[in-house]
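Why this split exists: single-chain examples teach little about how molecules sit against one another. For that reason, every record in the complexes split bundles all components of an assembly together and asks for one structure covering all of them. Below is a record exactly as it appears in the raw files.
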Amino acid sequence: MLRDTTSKVVLFGGIAIILLGAVMPNWIVNQLMFGFSRALAILGLLVLWRTGLVSFGHAFYFGLGAYTVAIVDIQLGVTDVFVRLFGGAIIAGIAGFIIGFIMRNYRDIFFAMLNTAISMVLYGIIVKTESLGSTDGFAISLPTIFGIAPETKYPLFIIITMIAMISALLINFYLKTTVGRLTTPIRDNEIRVEYLGFSVAHAIHLKYTISAVLAGGAGALMAMSLGQVDPDSMINWTVSGELVFITILSGPGNVIAPFIGSLVFEVLRTYAFELAPQAWQLIVGATFLTVIFFLPGGIWSLIAKLGRKKS
Amino acid sequence: MSNAAPILQVRNLLKTFGAVVAAKDINIDVSKGEIVGIIGANGAGKTCFVNMVTGYLTPTGGSIVFEGAELVGKGPREVTHAGISRSFQVSQVFHSMTVEENLRIALAIAENRGVDALRPMESDALEAKCSDVLRRYKLEPHKHMTVSVLSQGIRKLLDIAMAVVSEPRILLLDEPTSGISVEEKFDFMDVVMGALKEDNVTVLFVEHDMEIVERYVSRVLAFYQGEIIADMAPDKALADNKVQEFVIGKRH
């Protein structure tokens, strides 16, 4: 599982980032936490995108993960980081598994927009429900780790980086399995896949559920990193759009790509906002167009090209 | 017809699309090892028959029994698992992948069913099998080429090679030589039929080219307007008056 180059880069790169985090300024550690948290959702979208499926509604699972953290905190007083994280990922995974029975029958724009519709239903429910925080959302207490309340965010940063590493390694492994390899084949020719003896519906259902688990975990980690949840920054369609944007920015070439793309996005947004607070979307939009025109394979295609030149 | 016990029994098969009757009263027994040619004019019901046997279309009535098990109601995947495979009139392969990648995924699906699909795909055994299929179907020179740039003939070979990796007992080929030049058709069929003979597969194939039918089949089923009008040895079938008139198009 750890024999290929990607796995080694994930492992050693992750350890290096964890060690560097100890001496990095807080704002960089924060950016890394946000970037890595969001990257988990992108990792799930990568699995779908390789199969030719683009979801424009994964903020549903992202938000579900984030709100699970808020609800278990406020209603049950759960502060443990792992209970919160796995709670968010499992709830999102169950929802993804159930909704997957519908989604596996749709392709193209219907798949994309049906996901948007479902995410907007959840958004509508939360915005209109006082007990769910309505438009204001909730503040979340600081997470504890095995009963210990850390004084800095560094322990949470270590956990987020380790979860990111484990997720990248697992998805890297999954993409090498028979069902994991059923990406281009499904995109190219579903009839042939069925006649080879594999259910396309089952394969897509599994991919969809994996993407939901990852988006739920991403939402849970983001909620704990930010210390708050609200519908506009967790479930609104703009969040889904942001996730799709980062997926395209990253490129589907490798499981490391979502982490790089997500960090680039964090930096881009921060500096665009600093440079033009009223028109930062213009800079982000221009970057998006540049990537589509000049880097259709995303940032990863550039890295892969450089790697090939070196070797 | 062979005297061995039939492995495929088709009884009173009927398929209608509204008022259009695409197949009716189809009764066939196919024995192990037979090479059956299915002939007929366009719209005679040949592909409809292939589609019903392979689960792409559900018959309106009748039964299809393979090795003692009813196939009606089963979809393409279940039919493949039962031991029947097919190729298509327009080759159904993965166009943005190479020939080798196409075969690898076909072999992996055939070998890793159920939870085994969650095991790493690549293995030495899979590579060895892939090399063997590439050799037997003369696909080695093209193995690193993306399918979209290959000729129709190579795509058809790949389509058939992918259909047999699941080791079916019956293979249905829908117009294997369509789109292949006159000069290449015998070479193509020699490769295909040679490889299938090694695998001891029972073959049913739809064909318009009577030279191919005469040369390769042991039995002919002639379709006309959804019905079988002749079921006999190829020399007799091609000399039959009804076949001459309704299939070949010669008037007496």
